[in-house]
Design brief:
The structure is a homodimer.
Chain A (H helix, E strand, L loop, with lengths): L17 E6 L14 H4 L3 H7 L3 E6 L9 H8 L11 H8 L9 E10 L5 E3 L7 H12 L7 E8 L2 E7 L30 H18 L7 E8 L7 H5 L3 E4 L3 H9 L3 E2 L6 H10 L6 E6 L1 H7 L3 H11 L3 H6 L4 E5 L16 E6 L13 H4 L5 E4 L3 H8 L9
Parallel strand pairs in A: 1-10, 1-11, 2-13, 8-9, 8-10
Antiparallel strand pairs in A: 2-12, 3-4, 3-6, 3-7, 5-6, 11-12
Helix pairs in contact in A: 4-8, 10-11
Chain lengths: ~400, ~400
């Protein structure tokens, strides 16, 4: 991670408070008709006013040209090098449905599928069976028992579920069972090293039992597993930065990312207004808060430019409620851009602003891609945002004599 | 190299096409009389028009303050970390005269020189004998035979030649023979490790035979060798990026650099117009093209500001012919700056622009150092240019879940 071992002694615990607001998919690109991005189009009086009193810049989530998933995008903002600390798909999927994961657990993404009498794949997604149909099947699979390991199956949505293995000496280093094509049999799991042989054998045993349990089903008579993953072994943020960090997120995946980073996750409601209320109620109990705003990303992923503009305009009126708490450092960042015209995450640098008593504005009048590019922070790696937050909060002291 | 192992799975092969135009020595510095650089002085309507529809920025070839040679300058643009992947002088010299090199070959730069009756150096460059005089001497040296190795001597220019050794178990880890001063004898070659002892012995044998063969010559009766080098072992661009890359260059050294990087080199003529025609004729056969424009660098190295301006103005009218091919990504970059006022390569950041359907312009009106510094890409490492090209072409998918 970016916090080089050499900086460890520079972090100090103080009474100052940092609030990191992560606007998911914050950055965008110009609409072809207007030449203006989502942020440039939206009416954001409160964010703009804050920009006029902040230090502004752009963050690169991973590397120029590299569009990150939610995992790397957030880990970078928390100060972890996303190229060194990967969160595998199974673990992220488990975190996304609030499945408790502890170090050592192996999680996998599961699909129900349909095979013919010879065991050859007919439909890799079992006709996308609905959740109400797959949930009882998950409950049936959840009863599978294999000595020496705890197996749990959690429904996700439609034909998707999570398998969690808990026990001693498990390994994520096993192959996937989805052959990616039909008319062949699902693959057996294979160990990618001697330390994974027992895990591979357990999973193959699970698959054999699953097949028996589902044999009579007409729509979904088999399962496939992929993305076997354990939690990355991250040094907790609290230890690294000498903070008492908390995470507030309405969506489970982001709670999971907070947990993985060593934050205490504070229960909250379903909306960002709920999150702000949770922040207000717990403001005295922590010195660092990660608070997550999801809807901008969802609209961007849908390719709906107007909806993304609206989601940003819905965020704006809640900014004063956060500022009223008077945190020593309030920063607004994004885990990545999600330009509506691309309908996907992108690699573009993401606007970023940091407000503290040391920032008095620098001529940046609006909070958007073009204006922030002119800010005093310039273009930095997302992994460096925590350094900026810590120093502006007086928690990162002089390096070296 | 920059393509972290972790990104390998993110590269996908698609039908989209990337054209990378490398303008050798592209960047410059202000003329003291006008305060304008070569690019700012030149009339470049087509490059300027392209900048108005591109994402613009600056590239740092190696590190701030580090002026690269042609080898590192190009390798960086192809995505190889130039500090990790060195091309030794002998290998680059060989590539520069179209000498075929295969992995394992050892190439060295050779000089004819003049020694006195005691074998002490009188003239380290043999009075800079002309090529027509040195070529027959090279042919004579080329007949030297040593068991277990294939020896070839290729004339370069004036007093310079290339010695190529081909065979099993050769090593580049041997010392040079040029003592850098006169009135002493050329040095024998020494092995820098046990694995190089046989190569050192072969080269010393060659030097002894060369001395006998040249003994009667009055102007050039001995040779010196330096820059022993093997090809670097680069992962081929095609494998790394899942591309089918081609290189088009009128000058042999750049064809050599393309070969070293794993591109197919397409034969072309002597001018950039020939190169563009070659690009047109082969456009369907590859998904990545490196095309090289040399004259700007040559004028800069000559310290001729006006000539460099003119060479840039001669490039400009050919830009529309490349754009007519409608590549998905067209990027214009430089391997380094060659400011005419310095008459040498320099370390200055180099203008860079990338045109794709995702770039709609960003207020940059001209293609030059000052304007590109205001572009949305900001200042990036040259090694990151390929990441930008790949992502804009839809060939670099999301990193991490």
């Amino acid at each position: 991670m970016i916090d080089q071992e050499q900086l460890r002694d520079c972090y100090v615990t103080t009474r100052s408070k940092i609030v990191m607001l992560v606007v998911d998919g914050l950055g965008g690109l110009a609409h072809p008709d207007t030449g203006l991005s989502e942020l440039e189009t939206a009416r954001l009086p409160n964010l703009d006013a804050m920009a006029q009193e902040s230090a502004c810049g752009l963050t690169t989530p991973v590397l120029p040209g590299v569009a990150p998933g939610s995992g790397p995008g957030h880990l970078a903002l928390f100060g972890y090098d996303p190229l060194k600390h990967m969160i595998g798909r199974g673990a992220l999927e488990a975190l996304g449905i609030d499945t408790p994961l502890i170090p050592g657990d192996v999680a996998a993404r599961g699909n129900f599928c349909l095979v013919d009498g010879d065991g050859l794949l007919v439909d890799r997604r079992a006709g996308r069976i609905p959740t109400e149909f797959s949930t009882p099947l998950c409950q049936r699979l959840d009863r599978i028992e294999i000595p020496g390991v705890e197996l749990d199956v959690y429904p996700v949505q439609d034909y998707r579920f999570v398998l969690r293995l808990r026990g001693e000496g498990l390994s994520e280093r096993i192959t996937e069972t989805d052959p990616q094509i039909t008319s062949v049999a699902p693959l057996p799991v294979e160990a990618l090293g001697p330390q994974a042989e027992r895990t591979a054998s357990i999973v193959n045993d699970f698959l054999a039992q699953a097949r028996l349990l589902l044999a009579e089903e007409e729509r979904a008579n088999m399962v496939m597993l992929r993305g076997f993953a354990q939690l990355p072994n991250l040094p907790p943020m609290g230890d690294v930065y000498r903070l008492n960090p908390a995470g507030i997120a309405a969506y489970p995946m982001y709670r999971g990312l907070a947990t993985v980073s060593g934050m205490r996750v504070i229960p909250t409601g379903k909306t960002f207004a709920d999150e702000v209320e949770t922040l207000q109620q717990n403001f005295e109990s922590h010195d660092f808060f990660f608070i997550h705003y999801k809807p901008a990303d969802a609209a961007g992923e849908d390719g709906d430019f107007d909806a993304k503009v609206q989601r940003l305009e819905e965020l704006d009126p809640l900014i004063p409620q956060i500022r009223e708490l008077d945190p020593d450092v309030l920063l607004v960042a994004g885990d990545h851009a999600t330009p509506a015209i691309m309908a996907s995450h992108s690699w573009h640098p993401v606007p970023f602003m940091l407000h503290s008593k040391l920032t008095k504005g620098e001529g940046v009048k609006t909070f958007d891609e073009r204006a922030c590019a002119q800010g005093s922070i310039g273009s930095i790696q997302a992994t460096q945002v925590m350094l900026m937050a810590m120093s502006h909060a007086g928690k990162l002291t002089k390096f070296g004599p």
